[in-house]
Amino acid sequence: MALSDVIREARIRNNLKQEDAALLMDVTVQTYSKWENGITEPKASQVAQLSDLLNVSTQMICCGKQSEKIDMVDFIRIVSRQAKDLSEFEMIETIWHNIEDDATFLEALKKLNSEDKYEAVITMKKIAN
């Protein structure tokens, strides 16, 4: 999926007009329209803004690849089956390669060791989105 398709579909899914998205991005409607029509592409800093605005990952915008989230119970079952012969290092390396925000993930782990487990769960859910 092309960047233009990703941002168009996400904008529509969020019930935004091009004019609204352009205003929120602090660009002209013409600039935003060019992004959606594949004529030009946003700068890297604008991709981060688009990610926040449209509630899609930067990976989805840049690569056209949707992050896939499955139910946590199913995830645990699958990981348990597939990782039974992996070392702790291999598990950590796999996690490291596949999370988008290392610092936020590590902060969430730190919170899990604290008293505020509710806050840690909220942080983990934010990482997933």
Can you offer a commentary on this structure?
- The two termini are 19 Å apart.
- The chain has 129 residues and is mainly α.
- The longest helix has 12 residues, at 117-128.
- The protein is 69% helix and 0% strand.
- The relative contact order is 0.09.
- The chain has two domains: 3-63, 434 Repressor (Amino-terminal Domain), CATH 1.10.260; 72-128.
- The model has no long low-confidence stretch (mean pLDDT 84).
Sketch the topology as an H/E string, one letter per element: HHHHHHHHH
What characterizes the major β-sheet? none
Strand-residue fraction?
A: under 5%
| Helix/sheet category | mainly alpha
Number of distinct helices: 9
- Apparent shape: elongated
Which architecture name of the largest domain does CATH use? Orthogonal Bundle
Number of domain units: 2
Give the uncertain stretches in residue-range form.
Answer: none
* CATH class category name of the largest domain: Mainly Alpha
What value does the average pLDDT take? 84
**Roughly how much helix do the residues carry, as a percent range?**
55-70%
Spatial separation of the terminal alpha carbons: 19 Å
Write down the Rg: 18 Å
Annotation, overall tally of beta strands:
0
CATH topology of the largest domain: 434 Repressor (Amino-terminal Domain)
Fourth CATH level, the homologous superfamily of the largest domain: lambda repressor-like DNA-binding domains
